[in-house]
């Protein structure tokens, strides 16, 4: 077997920040998230990922019941002649920025074994042994790239908890064997509802109302939306949104569609109650907790840091869906409807 050169390796190693951000924990987290996202395009109740922190700054990942087709596609494109080829990036970044990587992908009736040293790799394909949908990876971040860096277990657990919420049903188990053995399990079938629970729990006397936890698949996108009013926060708000694993710190189409859908639903309820209200996005968000996530392919992220989602069709879809759900909820829950309407009934046109 010949050693092959990853065509993007030189560029990735020369300009790593262009691909993963900074070269501390954020860069490591992005590198790990790219790999996880590639295998979580399809999940089921048996999907399990185990991540172990070993000595010598080595990470071992064992995944079962995951989608391996994307990873195999990445491997096929590693030596693609086009230097701008991006289909290999999740694997190309990992092997290029690791001093050593061993990867075993059980895909359909074949096993793809990849052994890499700083981007140069040997690939072997053999008949499978009945473990399709399984992935084994062991890698060590290259100290030449990640200077004075050791993966922090607690920070990584925060990342894994977020992933488990954004991909409902997946079970993630993390273990640290570098000192006293630590083990954590993250499994949230309810999805980002758990993130909303955590936000509410920061106030010991929380009394949320007008809470909706929504899930829907519209066209090719899977949505999760959770929100409520939390009056103890007075005029503050708590808003988070995600496109796949990316947190959209500058918002964009997803959160705008959710907000506009809520406003439409409240206006509809007020009209039926014959109550005149004045409502805006700013006023809506006072004392509100809103978390939204969307999963799919080919998102256009814009703005500084690529932290804003630009997707007009997606915005319209989620707006219509949220409007219908809010209108239905307020028609069935009189007490919440009256509290919400009164919140906007004191300012007149």
UniProtKB/TrEMBL annotation:
Q: Which residue numbers delimit the DNA topoisomerase type IIA subunit B domain?
A: 221-341
The catalytic activity of this protein is classed by the Enzyme Commission as: 5.6.2.2
Question: What reaction gets catalysed by this protein?
Answer: ATP-dependent breakage, passage and rejoining of double-stranded DNA
SUPFAM superfamilies per record: ATPase domain of HSP90 chaperone/DNA topoisomerase II/histidine kinase, Ribosomal protein S5 domain 2-like
Broad EC category? isomerase
Q: Name one GO biological process term.
A: DNA topological change
Keyword annotations of the record: ATP-binding, DNA-binding, Isomerase, Nucleotide-binding, Topoisomerase
- One Pfam family in the UniProt entry: DNA_gyraseB
GO molecular function, a single term? DNA binding
Family of this protein:
Belongs to the type II topoisomerase GyrB family.
What is the protein name stated in its UniProt record? DNA topoisomerase (ATP-hydrolyzing)
From the broadest rank down, the organism's phylogenetic lineage runs: Bacteria, Pseudomonadati, Bacteroidota, Chitinophagia, Chitinophagales
């Amino acid at each position: 077997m010949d050693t092959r050169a990853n065509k993007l390796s030189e560029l990735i190693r020369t300009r790593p920040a262009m691909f993963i951000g900074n070269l501390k924990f954020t860069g490591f987290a992005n590198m790990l998230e790219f790999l996880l996202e590639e295998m979580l395009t399809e999940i089921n109740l048996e999907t399990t990922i185990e991540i172990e922190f070993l000595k010598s700054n080595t990470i071992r990942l064992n995944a079962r019941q995951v989608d391996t087709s994307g990873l195999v596609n990445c491997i096929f494109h590693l030596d693609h002649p086009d230097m701008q080829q991006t289909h290999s990036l999740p694997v190309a970044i990992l092997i290029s920025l690791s001093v050593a990587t061993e990867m075993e992908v059980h895909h359909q009736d074949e096993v793809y074994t990849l052994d890499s040293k700083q981007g140069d790799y040997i690939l072997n394909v053999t008949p499978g042994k009945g473990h399709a949908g399984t992935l084994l990876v062991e890698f060590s971040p290259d100290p030449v790239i990640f200077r004075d860096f050791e993966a922090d277990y607690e920070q990584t657990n925060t990342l894994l908890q977020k992933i488990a919420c954004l991909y409902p049903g997946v079970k993630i188990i993390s273990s640290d064997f570098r000192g006293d053995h630590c083990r954590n399990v993250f499994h949230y079938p309810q999805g980002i509802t758990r993130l909303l629970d955590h936000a509410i729990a920061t106030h010991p006397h929380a009394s949320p109302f007008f809470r909706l936890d929504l899930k829907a698949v519209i066209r090719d996108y899977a949505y999760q939306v959770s929100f409520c009013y939390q009056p103890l926060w007075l005029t503050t708000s708590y808003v988070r949104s995600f496109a796949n694993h990316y947190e959209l710190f500058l918002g964009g189409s997803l959160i705008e569609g959710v907000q506009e859908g809520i406003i439409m639903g409240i206006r509809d309820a007020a009209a039926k109650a014959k109550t005149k209200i004045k409502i805006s996005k700013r006023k809506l968000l006072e004392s509100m907790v809103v978390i939204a996530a969307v999963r799919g392919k080919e998102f256009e992220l814009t703005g500084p840091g690529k932290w804003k989602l630009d997707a007009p069709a997606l915005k319209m879809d989620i707006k219509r869906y949220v409007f219908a759900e809010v209108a239905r909820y307020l028609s069935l829950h009189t007490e919440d409807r009256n509290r919400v309407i009164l919140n906007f009934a004191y300012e007149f046109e």
